[in-house]
Amino acid sequence: MEQRKTTIPIITLSILARNSTNDNKGSLIQKAYAGFGFLISKMKCTQLLNQIRHVSMKGLVASFFPYCALCPVACLSTSSRWSTRKKSSQYSSVDTEKYSSLVRSVLSRTSSQTPASLKEEDEHIFGPIIKSKPAFAQECKVPKSSHPLVYPDKTLDRPSEDEGNPPMRIAMQRGASKVTVPSVTKILQQTMPPEQAFYLERWKERMIAELGEEGFKEYTINIFRQGRRFHSALESILIPEEELSSDTGSSESVEGYIESVRHVLREIRGVRAIESVVQHQSLNYLGLVDCVAMYRGELCVIDWKTSEKPKPHLRNTYDNPLQIAAYMGAINDDGNYNYQVQNGLIVVAYKDGSPAHVHFMKHDVCLVYWNRWLIRLEEFKEKV
Question: In the annotation, is 351 catalytic?
């Protein structure tokens, strides 16, 4: 019955539209729609207000739709900006099963993620983070007692007085008659950090598994012998008037190492000491320094190293910087040497002749490793 009543204005609208002229069609249509809207509102207002409390918006639109369907003019426009198709999300192509937790954390307004869970997700998606270690980490320990690396009352350099003089060469005194003084090498070996000791032991086990016990012993002997030949060949270059020792063997076996350091040798002048013992009297340790010479105008403690693997960074040389600092402190304290050294140089040579890696240690870097050396020295004394 209600549907029959609502069709009356529409029929009337059609009759008026056919019988009227073009000039007044617009006004008649407007009046008819106004009457139609008034009738609809009068008939359905009460019913809609009662329903709106109990039904959802979807149900309300569905209840009103039959009346809109009878209207010859569309009530809903498909061109309206409110009815445009929703744009697809940029995350629609993401594999939500694999990255479900990540997708939820991105799309949700508030995330329950913590730094630990985010790090775990990053490692799951991108793999573990590889962090490069700095040249030297922040010191967490300081030596109990401080000792100077350089003495202010001692001459730093005397190039004019030492020019033309043969380099210092103090031999190592061995035997029971000499008072036992720990060497730098022994102190570093017995205070080696656990991580470094672990890698060294693992390397040793691998070599033994590959070469056997006897083969590994022979390998270490050959490495030592090769190092001695390399140092002897360097001595013959730095001090040409000296002859090679008879037990050093042929220099042909170290030609690759010599070629590797040739670009470094061009920069070295004024050799002050070579294969010479240095001793720190107050701290009671000694060492055998490879070379003390001018490198690019700076007096340096020089340490020649051979390696089977490239060592492009100072941190790759492990305890060698501490060894340099220990030798430097001993030279500056030892009365046999009338000069002081503030810089260090580590040269890593390769058997295939590829250019050696050169690590120049400025004075501020040497101070850092000097403090580290003092800590290792204290640890050694506590053990003995």
Answer: no
